[in-house]
Amino acid sequence: MRNEMMRRPVVKEDILTLIRDRQKKLTGKLGDIEREAREKGVPIIPHETVVFMQFLLGQLQPKHILEIGTAIGFSASLMAQTAGPDSHVTTIERFDVMSEQAKKNVAELSLENQITILEGQAADILPTLQGEYDFVFMDSAKAKYIDFLPDCLRLLKKKGVVMIDDVFQGGTVMHPVTEIHRSQRGIHRKLNELFDKVLTHEDLTTSLVPLGDGVLLITKEKDNVSL
């Protein structure tokens, strides 16, 4: 369950301590879920990304949020709480054990009316979704980001934001593929394909942020965008 890439910081250790350990902690039940997940090595977003997401959503004030990769429901609950009671999060999870834990956490946080968990493969579910989302968060299989992105952009409203987590592959994403362990080369190629497609795209505005194992932010500048 542990994400070993999170043990390979992409910023200096002292700066990592500053942004991960010294920023405001979560309180209440959501804070308890975060602490328990860290103790057990359950893969959730690192605390510096938690704080960044709170700040970003506080500015964007999204009402309709889509998440790919529910895990235990931590980030979905964080987004729902941060965006407020008028917001709604639709989140997709492929693993039964994760979705069951997510349902329990969502219930304990009394967020059942704000969070809808769709169980199944994102590749099957995304094409069936309609409507516009203000914010999309992807934190799933890294090799699938480039495959999921066209549907995410289709569903995203103009000037909406896609946030993609863990895009630096433990700081190795720009290393020659021959230096990457064979088990990780598929992910390496797919992440670089993602960068090639979006970073200089004329209809997208992007930003790479060295939080956790890297965050990619994407805004679309017109209604219909093709990759």
UniProtKB/TrEMBL annotation:
E.C. code: 2.1.1.-
Domain of life where this protein originates: Bacteria
Biological process per Gene Ontology, one example term: tRNA methylation
Pfam families noted in UniProt: Methyltransf_3 (PF01596)
Record's keyword annotation contains Membrane: no
Catalytic reaction annotation: 5-hydroxyuridine(34) in tRNA + S-adenosyl-L-methionine = 5-methoxyuridine(34) in tRNA + S-adenosyl-L-homocysteine + H(+)
Alphabetized InterPro entries for the sequence: Cation-dep_OMT, SAM-dependent_MTases_sf, SAM_O-MeTrfase, TrmR_methyltr
Record PROSITE patterns: SAM_OMT_I (PS51682)
Residues the record lists as binding S-adenosyl-L-methionine: 45, 75, 93, 139
Enzyme class: transferase
UniProt KW keywords: Methyltransferase, S-adenosyl-L-methionine, Transferase, tRNA processing
Gene Ontology MF terms in the entry: O-methyltransferase activity; S-adenosylmethionine-dependent methyltransferase activity; tRNA (uridine) methyltransferase activity
Family under the similarity heading: Belongs to the class I-like SAM-binding methyltransferase superfamily. Cation-dependent O-methyltransferase family.
Known partners and oligomeric status: Homodimer.
Known role: Catalyzes the methylation of 5-hydroxyuridine (ho5U) to form 5-methoxyuridine (mo5U) at position 34 in tRNAs.
Name of protein: tRNA 5-hydroxyuridine methyltransferase
Source organism (scientific name): Vagococcus acidifermentans
